[in-house]
Write a structure and sequence with these properties.
single chain; three-stranded parallel beta sheet
């Protein structure tokens, strides 16, 4: 069977860097194996799910270049979920429990105080019909648990290697809340079964869930083994080694995009983070596909540093040909930044937003600096070679300035750079003045010695 993987975000918020990593790893694995990348919208929480988030998820994935082959929403599948629930109930694998949250918490604390694992005691299975009627008469509604079969649950994880759980150490998982709503576990497993998912690739915080889901898959499959392979990635940490989730709101894909981060910088960074492969700028997703392999993934939690992403973003822009960056430039409405400008500027920008500033520097109006030596700028203006400016103009011009002023080095060049660009760094001046042209250079110099 061909590889089929899924990415299943909930439309209760915007995608963040952790979501993007999960989606990217699934997408790369699918493409490496000529498989299908399926997008599932986990929207069973109807109160918190919002269409604006659902739309944003698709938009953000498209921005990253992670196109899906199949799309579906869990909210369209409630009839199917109820059908499976009836089957599991009839077979005795799903059973009602009437404990309140407070009673469950008390049981848990008692077990911990006795230094025992806080495993549910299956009191729900021992209820008599009379007890159930009493609970119902008192207004209690049951939550429903899945009865795990005794024994070990084992699988060969594509990242973690051999994994084994004894069901004696695991509580029967709650699949349906007292209000009748489904928990993620049952809807996810039913979807994975129905859509013939072959590989589940997700964070290591789901490892224990996987153990229960293996048995649930078999129960749905009429107690026959159902083959799915698992790969559990380590979770991202921040630069200080703390869980990234604490500041995840500041790392939404929308925020990073607004700050000028290129999608391929995100892809290149996340694809290699937590692996033995070097993080390098890549211009195309296909370049990441070719070297993707779970054998490179480490068991050590990787640290995500936003500064590293910005540096990679900077390097990426240096590599990008004009035709590839042109759509982004046009979106910024930097209409005067053409191929010639990009060729000069690309080594000196950290994000595309910098191009707005450089468009102004080259062709707009700058506020004159009062710190410049007006007499010196007047001298520079007087000896500027007239006519069309070429790359040789700068050398000829500064040679004359040096002869007349006696200045050299930084004292010669820096005031001139500041007068023309308002900055003390940037691309080579011999190339910048070619772009600016004779008239603009003259205008800039005049504003400096006439203020």
């Amino acid at each position: 069977m061909s590889v089929r993987v899924r990415f299943a975000p909930s439309p209760t918020g915007y995608l963040h860097i952790g979501n993007a990593r999960a989606a990217l790893i699934n997408w790369l694995f699918a493409k490496k194996n000529n498989g299908l990348f399926i997008l599932r919208q986990d929207d069973t929480d109807l109160k918190r799910s919002e269409q604006r988030y659902a739309d944003a998820i698709i938009e953000d994935l498209k921005w990253l270049g992670l196109e899906h082959a199949v799309f579906f929403k869990q909210s369209d599948r409630f009839d199917r979920y109820h059908e499976v629930v009836r089957t599991l109930t009839e077979s005795g694998r799903l059973y009602p429990c009437y404990e309140t949250p407070e009673e469950l918490d008390y049981k848990r604390k008692m077990l911990l105080s006795q230094k025992k694992p806080p495993v549910y005691d299956r009191a729900g299975l021992r209820l008599t019909q009379e007890q159930i009627r009493e609970y119902e008469a008192a207004g209690r509604k049951p939550h429903w648990r899945f009865k795990l079969n005794p024994g070990k649950i084992e699988w060969e994880d594509l990242i973690r290697g051999a994994v084994s759980f004894d069901t004696a150490d695991i509580s029967d998982p709650v699949l349906i809340r007292a209000d009748g709503s489904f928990l993620y576990t049952i809807t996810s497993v039913i979807d994975d079964f129905d859509y013939k998912i072959t590989h589940i690739v997700r964070g290591e915080d789901h490892v224990t869930n996987t153990a229960t889901q293996v048995q649930l898959l078999e129960a749905i499959n009429n107690d026959k083994p159902f083959s799915i392979q698992f790969a559990h990635t380590t979770l991202l940490m921040d630069a200080d080694g703390q869980p990234l989730s604490k500041r995840i709101g500041s790392l939404s894909l929308r925020g990073l995009r607004a700050n000028g981060i290129n999608p391929m910088a995100i892809n290149a960074h996340l694809a290699r983070l937590g692996t033995s492969l070097p993080v390098e700028p890549q211009l195309k997703l296909q370049d990441l596909v070719e070297k993707f392999d779970f054998k490179y993934f480490s068991r050590t939690a990787p640290k995500f540093n936003e500064d590293d992403l910005k540096l990679l973003n900077h390097k990426l822009f240096h590599m990008m040909p004009y035709e590839q960056v042109k759509p982004y430039i046009e979106k910024l409405e930097c209409l005067k930044i053409k191929e010639a400008e990009w060729g000069v500027l690309h080594d000196n920008i950290e994000s595309l937003d910098d191009l707005k500033r450089w468009e102004t520097i080259l062709y707009g109006t700058l506020t004159p600096s009062k710190s410049n030596d007006a007499a010196y700028i007047k001298l520079c203006f007087d000896v500027l070679p007239q006519g069309t400016i070429t790359e040789s103009t700068w050398a000829e011009w500064t040679k004359k300035i040096k002869e007349l002023s006696g200045k050299k080095g930084k004292e010669l060049f820096m005031p001139l750079r500041q007068a023309l660009t308002g900055m003390d760094h940037g691309p080579e001046m011999k190339k910048l003045i070619v772009l600016m042209g004779y008239h603009q250079v003259c205008t800039r110099l005049k504003t400096q010695f006439t203020i």
